[in-house]
Amino acid sequence: MNTKPLRRLLACDLDGTMFPAAPDPTHAEALAAFIALRAADTGLAVAYVTGRHLVSAVEAMAYWSLPKPDLLSCDVGTAVYLSDMTASSGWRRDEDYAVHMHEAMGGVTAHDIETLLDGVPNLVLQEADRQSEFKTSYTLPRDTSGAAAVTEVRRRLSTTGAGFSIVHSTGVYEDDDLLDILPPGVTKASAVAYMSVCATVASTFTLFAGDSRNDLDPLLASDGGIVVANARPALLDALRSAPESVYLAKQPHLYGVVEGTLYFSAKSRQSRTLKGDG
Length: 278
Ligand SMILES: [Mg+2]
Fold this sequence. Notes:
Blueprint: E1 8-12, H1 27-40, E2 44-49, H2 54-63, E3 71-74, E4 79-83, E5 91-93, H3 95-105, H4 110-116, E6 124-125, E7 136-140, H5 144-158, E8 165-170, E9 177-182, H6 188-196, E10 205-210, H7 216-221, E11 224-227, H8 233-238, E12 246-248, H9 253-275
Parallel strand pairs: 1-2, 1-10, 2-3, 10-11, 11-12
Antiparallel strand pairs: 3-4, 4-5, 6-7, 7-9, 8-9
Helix pairs in contact: 1-9
Residues 13, 15-17, 211-212 line the site of magnesium ion.
């Protein structure tokens, strides 16, 4: 009988996944269920993976009373943070991951991207605090003019000869769509893969929970994907022929995360029992 606990990683998007867009009376109860789940499963490491920058992520975690995760990824997978109680935010940037991002940029800077995309019709650069060393963020209309802007962005970026990641998503709060330009090959899935094998985790099974289109890559790349019931139509469309490793939760937000985690735990127990080592 194998009694060694499995070290697993549960990585969760924040907005629309760990909490709703507006205060919700069921959040406190769902939060209690999540905290209980984490306490009962000592082999489970938790990471939050968000498009927010560090200060904004820390603010949201405090506002929604979320427990501190083991690891944190901000800026759509382009930054990983490690817990550090000596830092004022409680987090310090993982410099090894930053080196990976530098290498992935291949000598192109965020400023170069901004210059290259300057003047694309209907493409609006987001505020300075939404930009980072490895992520350039825009808004664009959610209509055909927005689609035309994305086509033009692709054309201009192709002139660099590097395959910069273009993540087009629908925000929880904004009326416009969001467009993030990330280093070639980088998405939220890159940060999840990195965190799953980092020193503090050593995960043998990785779960990812999300609600929107920019969660698609990690949902498909993880051993188990959890789609909360309030997921955006664009994500559900992209998951029409989802593999068996993706679970569509019946409950929204944090309740859906708990439901999905319990689903994969039960499935894993079942398969270990079938193999005769449970
Ligand atoms: Mg989200």
